Amino acid sequence: MTLAIFDLDGTLLEGDSDYSWGQFLVEQNLVDVDLYKKANDRFYQDYVAGTLNIHEYLEFSLAPLKNFSESELDALHKTFVEQKINPMIHQKALDLIADHRKRGHFLLIITATNQFVTGPISKMLGMDDLIAPIPEIIDGRHTGKIVGIPSFQAGKVTRLHSWLKETGHSLEGSYFYSDSHNDLPLLEQVAFPVAVDADKTLADIAMQKGWPHISLRD
């Protein structure tokens, strides 16, 4: 079965779910507002620049989850989706997903944003599976740590190849849609790489390599 692989933030979403989750926590006064906002902004700029320390960032982004029960987190996430995520989803993105679904393709999101944030979004978009950093949960509580390799930059390739071995899928005829130069390692692995509303670095490389460059913005 052909794989249709999608990055999430900046690709299927017009925005960044991880950064927006941090904004949401600040707006709800669930974290130290000044310190958290400054750190959240700094990490986002590091991501844009391609210099993000993913382990440091995940430690930062997962730490607040320790303070809530699973039921509290579920309720917070529902409000987060209503306020932050739904406005980021455009019809063109839904149409692209629907087109691959009609063609019988397997729909997969691979993202550097942790599974707590992205799991419900992936299900809402009708994906068949999700590869994302996995938060550690012990005795029903988040520990603030991750399990395994973060799916970021070359880590996306590592995690995808592990997933391919586990599931029996292959990259033959595969698609990957992304907006970010951080995803170049994976874009170079698939049969049909597609730049989506790309940053300048990726847009320039896509032009050089003859990759399609599309927009999913209404």
CATH topology heading: Rossmann fold
CATH superfamily: HAD superfamily/HAD-like
Outline the biggest β-sheet: 6 strands, parallel
Q: What is the strand arrangement across the widest sheet?
A: 3-2-1-6-7-8
Coarse structural class: alpha/beta
The share of residues in extended strands comes to 15-25%
Radius of gyration: 17 Å
**CATH level-1 class:** Alpha Beta
- Globular, elongated, flat, extended or rod-shaped: what is the shape? globular
The poorly predicted ranges are: none
| Count of discrete alpha- or pi-helical segments spanning 4 or more residues | 9
**pLDDT averaged over residues:** 95
Overall domain count: 1
CATH architecture: 3-Layer(aba) Sandwich
From the N-terminal CA to the C-terminal CA, the straight-line distance is 30 Å
Structural description of this entry:
- By secondary structure, the chain is an alpha/beta fold.
- It has a single domain, classed as HAD superfamily/HAD-like (Rossmann fold).
- The protein has nine helices and eight strands.
- It has helices at 17-27, 33-49, 54-62, 70-85, 91-102, 115-124, 154-167, 184-187, 200-209, and strands spanning 3-6, 106-110, 129-131, 134-138, 141-147, 175-178, 192-196, 213-214.
- The strands form two sheets. It has a six-stranded parallel β-sheet, sandwiched between helices. Strands 4-5 form a two-stranded antiparallel ribbon.
- α9 links the parallel β7 (192-196) and β8 (213-214).
- α1 (17-27) runs antiparallel to α2.
- The longest helix has 17 residues, at 33-49.
- The model has no long low-confidence stretch (mean pLDDT 95).
